[in-house]
Amino acid sequence: MLQFRQDERTKGARIVKATPWRRQIIDTDAGGIETLDNGAGQNRAILLVTHGLGSIHSAEEIAEGLNARFPGRRIIAYSRPGRGASPECGHLASTDPLSQEAHALLPALLRALGLTSVDIVAHSDGVAVAVLFASAHPWMVGRMVAICPQVHTPERVDPSRCVEDIEKLGADHTNTLGAIRCWSAQCETLTANPGMVLDRVGALTAPLLLIQGLKDEYGAQRQMEALSDRVHGPMKWVMLRHDGHFPQHDNADVVIDMICGHFGDLSSETTSKRRQRRGAI
Hints:
Blueprint: E1 2-4, E2 22-28, E3 31-38, E4 44-49, H1 60-69, E5 75-78, H2 97-113, E6 117-123, H3 126-136, E7 141-147, H4 159-169, H5 176-192, H6 195-198, E8 208-213, H7 220-230, E9 235-240, H8 247-250, H9 252-263, H10 268-275
Parallel strand pairs: 1-9, 4-5, 4-6, 6-7, 7-8, 8-9
Antiparallel strand pairs: 2-3, 3-5
InterPro entries: AB_hydrolase_1, AB_hydrolase_fold, AB_hydrolase_sf
Organism: Rhizobium aquaticum
Protein name: Pimeloyl-ACP methyl ester carboxylesterase
């Protein structure tokens, strides 16, 4: 395990928005999905998967930081079903909304955007979606970053904290109560089936960076331990001693630097091996 001790003074640093981002509702086979898109036309991208109470607005800061360090690289974020301006996609509703998002909605979005491969940055229960997608489509995923993952039996949902967390995430929802309901349903799915994501972790081939805030109020350290125990491929684990469940917002520059270091550390040998793999979604 690596431990990264950041200067607490950096927590006040914020990314200044400068790039005009294209926000739109993308029509897909799974319904309309609100997206944040920079670098349209490229078939490879960095994909941001937000917290279950987040929206594309939650991803703006980290997207700006990545854009500044990887100029010209395509960066995509999306509002998950029922969050932001994305509809709930009722025809995808099921007792397993996380799997539906990972196996139906996300592939449909990537097809609509013309993407053939992605590096993934995911936060909280967004990591569950990323793991399910990457384990089913390993040829499409280059590298992954998991920030404060929630991938099995999450902490008990406390509705009184939802509004506070939405504010911390900087999210903007068309229907806030609907967003909370969708997030609660996903938490209930993990509670009912704790092995749903963990049982798939062994199939991951993408090099993984785990970033954890030591002061995480949602007990994500045990989430990271359960996740890392099952990872067979390359993995790094970083602990931020001053941060809680939202380090990419509270300590954006430090987290973005670590993400860029992970994405920039891709050997030509690994790249060659991944290019030999073929598949479709």
